[in-house]
Amino acid sequence: QVQLVESGGDLVQPGGSLRLSCKASGFILDNYPIAWFRQAPGKERESLSCIIRDDDTAYYMESVKGRFTISRDNAKSTVYLQMTNVKPEDTAVYYCARDPTFSCLAGPWEYDVWGQGTRVTVSS
Fold it and tell me: How far apart are CA 14 and CA 105, in angstroms?
């Protein structure tokens, strides 16, 4: 069964750090770019970052650039999102997804495998 499973979401204080994991199964992770998205209550799903399969080239949205780092460990079939200096506005459900266009240029509607999400709450 092809699937992605996120984990690592938690309650964290402003300025703190958190690492999210996205575990792939049923397919070879290193064949695909993987992206992270988030959706805050009452807001649309937002693209955050994407990592290319071959050379680990990564892309970031301005809202998280310099604070979040995406990485991958193909041997563990896992993609990570390291979050630092988190802010209350980072509170959301975080999702990872597979890009079947192999480009990190896909629109959200093109991603073909999504995880169930992991909740991050930033609050003191």
Answer: 31
